[in-house]
Design a protein that fits this description.
Blueprint lengths: L2 H5 L4 H7 L4 E6 L2 E13 L28 E6 L2 E7 L8 E11 L1 H7 L11 H7 L17 E4 L9 E4 L16 E4 L23
Antiparallel strand pairs: 1-2, 1-6, 2-5, 2-8, 3-4, 4-5, 7-8
């Protein structure tokens, strides 16, 4: 599967679910870190009251959202960095926030960047960016796979179940606040805000 076919002719919500179980890696000057995506949020652009492009807003801040599919959109929120992928064709500003990853390589390096142990290491959108050592917007506007950030599309870990629910910490105005556009691997302990009783600690919610 190519990045073009992955993003072609599918809704942003469907793509956000298909990203679950995909391997995301970052090759930094210090080494390679990576993880399986376990939580995403879809943002539907001009019609989505919680989206940065609501009502066609366009500025230097969100210009990357208007790029071609697979464009990296990094923005800051209260001094924290968050990572998104553009999901639709150029000038259709719909994106997917990568909320959490399950580490699969470079954990020692992650723990040097973010001195947390266990699931707290990468169970949130700013947490995994900190753990990966991404603290700037140099990759904003670039295409995934053309630089140090890569997404494996040829294979995928299969979730046993995908949960859809309302997004976290979004705008309270408009009609999209409680839209079920947050998707996550049921039971995976790296999902943000997951209660202990919901965690599946034997298989982390993956099919065998």
């Amino acid at each position: 599967m190519t990045s073009i076919s992955f993003f072609s002719q599918r809704s942003t919500a469907v793509i956000a679910q298909d990203l679950l179980g995909r391997k995301l890696t970052y090759a930094s000057s210090e080494g390679i870190v990576g993880g399986y995506i376990v939580e995403t949020e879809a943002y539907l652009g001009e019609e989505d009251s919680t989206a940065h492009a609501f009502k066609g807003r366009r500025s230097s801040f969100n210009e990357a959202l208007y790029g071609p599919p697979g464009t990296i959109y990094i923005y800051t929120l209260r001094g924290l960095y968050l990572f998104n992928l553009v999901a639709q064709e150029k000038d259709v500003p719909q994106g997917i926030l990568i909320r959490a990853v399950e580490p699969c390589c470079g954990r020692d390096l992650m723990e040097r960047h973010r001195p947390k142990s266990g699931f707290e290491l990468t169970n949130g959108p700013a947490k995994f960016m900190e753990a990966w050592g991404i603290r700037d917007k140099k990759l904003n506007g670039t295409l995934i796979g053309t630089g140090p950030l890569s997404l494996t599309l040829r294979q995928r870990r299969q979730p046993q179940q995908i949960i859809a629910g309302p997004r976290i910490g979004v705008s309270q105005r408009g009609t999209a606040t409680f839209a079920p556009l947050r998707f996550y691997v049921a039971g995976n302990p790296y999902v943000s805000n997951l209660r202990k009783r919901e965690m599946q600690l034997t298989d982390y919610g993956w099919k065998k």
